[in-house]
Amino acid sequence: MTMQTENEVALDELRHLISERAITGETMLLNMGPQHPSTHGVLRLLLELDGEVVVNCIPDIGFLHTGIEKNMEAKTYEKAAVMTDRLDYLNTIGNNLAYCLAIEKLADLDVPPRAQAIRVLLTELQRISSHLVWLGTHALDLAAMSVFLYCFREREMLLDIHEMVSGQRMMTTYFRPGGLWRDVPVEFEDAVRHFLRIFPERIDEYESLLTKNPIFMERTRKIGVLSGEEALRWGLTGPPLRASGVAHDLRKARPYSGYEQYDFDVPIHTDGDTYARYVVRIEEMHQSLRIVQQALDTLPYGPVRSSNRKFVPPPRAELGTSMEAVIHHFKLWTEGFDLPKGAVYMPVESPRGELGVYLESDGGPKPYRVHWRTPSFVNLQALPLLAKGHLVADLVALIGTIDVVLGDVDR
Amino acid sequence: MEENLQPAAAALAERFSAQVREFRGDTTLTLASESIVAACRALRDEYGFDMLSDETAVDYWPQQEPRFHVVYQVRSIQNNLLLSLRVPVSGMNPSVPTIEGIYPNANWHERELWDMFGIRFEGHSDMRRILMPYDWEGHPLRKDFPLGYEEVAFTFNAEEIDQTKPYARE
Amino acid sequence: MGIEQKTGDMGAVTMRLEQAVNWARTNAMWPMLFGLACCAIEMMAAQASNYDMSRFGMELMRASPRQSDLMIVAGRVSRKMAPVLRRLYDQMPAPKWVIAMGDCASCGGVFNNYAILQGVDEVVPVDVYVAGCPPRPEALIHGILTLHEKVRSENLKTWA
After folding, report:
1. Contact across the interface for A82 and C115, Cβ inside 8 Å
2. Do B148 and C113 touch (CB under 8 A)?
3. Is C109 within 8 Å of C102 (Cβ atoms)?
4. Which residue in B has a C-alpha nearest to residue A18's C-alpha?
């Protein structure tokens, strides 16, 4: 198949989405992506332009469709967890969390308090590192190179923490059904405290470059304004919703993994424009630091995996002494565990919005159906709405402000 | 069941002769495909379910009828409620009325369901494939669609695979 | 040690044409700014402050394939993306090189299914494979240095 035929099919099918003026040649059709520096991956946009003004914007996704949902059906629950990391590759730990919570909800499995606290702690650190990538690339798109370099400098510290606990920088698969892979090492606390100590002033550093910067303000204020009702109608969640004045955060609304123990605010803004979304995300980083601080100060001692041997393999030390442990070990690593028949929906708050896992089991050791309700997929739908009437240059800012991760969109 | 969800679920169950199911704290209403639009409209306008969180489907092949279930998750931000709706769909000519008119973000979800399961949504404004290439044949998430597994090369079969694998040239 | 010490009084250097050309090619090999998935984030990290790829004359990522010499396939390639990838490769001016970064680009990685190409070498000829899921920035830099070594050993006949 050549690209030529693909384009012809596309244009014919898209006729109902473009205006009459495009057919007469009054407006211009322009293809943007899938290889474009500021589409944050392989997003393709078909633009109808009147001069430099966007009349219509038709996103074309699927260039990173990975078949994760289908592939997970072919693996046991524990093995399928490695796929979850690769969905939203900036929020790997958050994806693990959603998946593990769904399994635990379906199996009615307990998670020890220490594991829950470490889960919260790492998820919040991941939220910060995800926002750092967003901030860096968003600023880079608006031609502020130094912010990108600063953000990636701090992100390395977080990746070092991931590596310390799990041995991997990005794809950790550190959370397992029933708890964690293993306990955090002793150096963990010092590393997190060091980060907590220096990071607040680093945020001030980013803000000193952007918040009052006239160029940045000019390019983000009044760009892509979205009212609260519109945001709800289009199902937007996460920072885009909160920047439109709706204080909805699943960590507060339906607390999971012990979020109700921590004291934090849900930052909102009422302007609903690109600048408001920037302010909300910056403030979210401060709030995440608060949660991490509390979680670290009150970190309980105890086991990090459930003692339910039907779902969680026994510790290695038990294998030498207990016949039952050997049987459980063998069964769990060959067949995997069975989950009761039924379906659950488990939503969590990812850095981009509501990340939901729909998990259905037929009573066997493999998931019957896993569906990921990914925030980027839903939020990206609002891009045409935001882009209409703006300049092409502002479109770049709008893609950045939605914070799409194409792995999350295409699955 | 969550207390606030009780009136909405009970009223809807009676109005649309739906079955209510409770499982692990999730409430599910199973209704016929004809009443899904009216049910969603009632949920949005009368009970304050202002957001469609998710829409997906499950394939129960080789069970003959009804082969598919379309699953909706509707959320009420103001009352902090989550309700899921299930619509069984026949496998012979799978089609469901679209709810795009009530929740606009159903647009992409329904396109995805068409792409992945081959379920048509009547009245949908833009029923095209969304994730797969335009000329793709079949609907990948159906249970009778193969995973498309390719043999993995180990020492004993590496040469054999190497000979058959297409390699690109300059 | 600057070039002055090497040239001596004459201000001239003698070397083979191959060597001179290959030296020039390796020291300003512009990669294409083209990320696909997870590996692209590690590629960005390799560009950023901690790892700093500009030490190898590679800080300039070109967004246009017409201006780039090296394609780093960073991430999984779907069946929908494959024709696009090949087109980008065809648009690059010769001489051009390809690095398959990460397991997915090298062999499909964990995704052995209908949607993902089992190795980008089915679409474009690959010079260096970098293992890892995703490879660390050091691994990518090592891959690039391996490619430099390969380019340095090319001779006149292979150019034609």
Report:
1. no
2. yes
3. yes
4. B126
pLDDT of C3 over the 80 cut:
no
**Secondary structure (3-state) at A344:** strand
d(CA A140, CA A135): 8
A305: DSSP letter: B
CA distance A125 to A110: 24
- Residue A136 contacts residue A151 (beta carbons within 8 Å): yes
Which chain C residues are Cβ-neighbours of B166 within 8 angstroms? 122
Burial tier of A342 (Cβ tally within 10 Å: 0-12, 13-18, 19+):
middle
Rounded to two decimals, the ipTM of the complex is 0.90
The per-residue pLDDT for range A121-142, each reduced to its tens digit, is 999 999 999 999 999 988 888 8
Tokens of B154: 């180990």
Q: How many CB atoms lie within 10 A of CB C4?
A: 8
Residue A32 per-residue DSSP state: E
Mind telling me how many Å the CA of B124 is from chain A's nearest CA?
12
State how far the Cα of A153 lies from the Cα of A162, in Å rounded to an integer.
15
**C-alpha separations of A201 from A90, A154, A198 in Å:** 23, 11, 6
pLDDT in tens, A336-386: 888 899 999 999 999 999 999 999 998 889 999 999 999 999 999 989 888
Query: Measuring CA to CA, how many Å separate A297 from each of A166, A262, A304, B27, B42?
Result: 22, 11, 17, 37, 47
Give chain B positions within 8 Å (CB) of C108: 150
